[in-house]
Amino acid sequence: MNRYEIFEKLNVKPAGIFISKIEIASWGQELILSCLYNPPDEDKLFQVHFKQCEKIHWEMMDPDANLQREVVADVLGFDLGQDRYLEDAIIHTTDFEIGVVYREVIVQKQWTD
Question: What is the mean pLDDT of the chain?
Answer without folding.
Answer: 91
